[in-house]
Amino acid sequence: MPIRSNIPGARQTWPRLWESGWYDLHDPWGQQYAAKFRVERGVDLLDIVSSGPDKWPGTADDFSIGTIRRSYFLPLQRLMERILVDQQDYPPTEKAFQELLGQ
């Protein structure tokens, strides 16, 4: 059974999660857990959800077994930190900063 996700490209966004093999886990009713992605106030949220005893996703008995949170801007923040770490001072203008990012 394929991994269920409600956001295209989620597998590329959270690659280490897929490499960990969590998606081979099954709920107490023998169904694979589903990954539900959303963004809320600058945070990527990944909910691991069971379809519940009726085994149908999207019904009232569905429940989350856990949520993983990651800053939505974390990849961009890390990129900027890598670029700026070698600088003695911050770029004086927006244009100078854009030139750094373009390298």
Overview of this protein structure:
There is one protein chain. This protein has 103 residues and is of the alpha+beta class. Helix content is 28%, strand content 23%. The protein has four helices and three strands; from the N terminus they run H-H-E-E-E-H-H. A three-stranded antiparallel β-sheet has the order 1-2-3, with no helix packed on it. The radius of gyration is 19 Å and the shape is rod-shaped. The mean pLDDT is 79.
Number of E-type strands: 3
Total number of distinct structural domains = 2
What does the largest sheet look like? 3 strands, antiparallel
Number of helices in the DSSP assignment: 4
Q: How are the strands of the largest sheet arranged?
A: 1-2-3
Series of secondary-structure elements, N-terminal to C-terminal: HHEEEHH
Low-confidence stretches: none
How much of the residues is beta strand, in percent? 15-25%
Class computed from helices, strands and strand pairing? alpha+beta
Give a quick set of tags describing it:
alpha+beta, 103 residues, 3-stranded antiparallel β-sheet
Quick take:
The longest helix has 11 residues, at 74-84. The protein has helices at residues 10-13, 15-19, 74-84, 94-102, and strands at residues 34-40, 43-50, 63-71.
